[in-house]
Amino acid sequence: MPGAQGMPSPVWGCREGVEDGRVSSVLKGFHRAGLRDNRAFTMLEVIAVLILIGILTGVATVTLFSTDDYTTTSQLAMVKAHLRYAQARAIHSGSTWGVKFAAAKTSYDGRLYSKYWLFIDPVEGSPIVLQGADDSRYVVVFGDGSVGVWPLDITPPSGLTVKFDKWGSPGPANVTISTDAGTISVTKNTGYID
Fold first, then answer.
1. Is 141 within 8 Å of 166 (Cβ atoms)?
2. pLDDT value of position 36
3. Are 117 and 83 in contact (CB under 8 A)?
4. Which of 79, 113, 134, 162 fits a disulfide with 148 by CB distance 3.0 to 4.6 angstroms?
């Protein structure tokens, strides 16, 4: 007799709940909803968990690793480019050009910026506007034309200036500019900037 005690039910996994040959409405609802006695994950569940882990890992990586290292490295490259620009201007104009570094940091917008500017000798105190991106976060072009960089910490060379003559030479002595992202060296006589 189908549906009697101890006999398998026509619905998979259901041994009880059979009344008059029919499965009770509660068990029918569970069966239709896909709630079965499976002990494995579907491929969709595995993929969803992997995507979620990937997103969480990406967010954690971005918050753990600051971009300040990349910022200071790019600012170091910008200072080198400005030195090369002064050197090129000296060579092309036949006069002495240079970059002067401020002895003290400049406070702006709650931060201390290392400040420097381009000049034509002999007027070191009059900045010539450098082509620079004023992104107001890391690089600021001040109203007088000087450039401020943050978080790059620049220790200026002795005398605070780097001058290039009409041949692009800084003179008979090497010039070293120390920063927290590396050292800038201007080789004597040749003017090689590294």
1. no
2. 56
3. no
4. 113
Task: Give the Cβ contact number of residue 166 at 10 Å.
Answer: 13
pTM above 0.70, yes or no: no
pLDDT of residue 191: 93
All domains of the chain, ordered by start, with CATH? 20-64 (no CATH), 68-186 (3.55.40)
Cis peptide preceding 122, ω within 30 of 0: yes
For 72, how many CA atoms within 13 A lie in the half-sphere containing its CB? 15
d(CA 105, CA 100): 13
DSSP assignments along 6-22, one per residue: TSPPSSTT--S-EETTE
The share of the chain scoring above pLDDT 90, in percent, equals 37
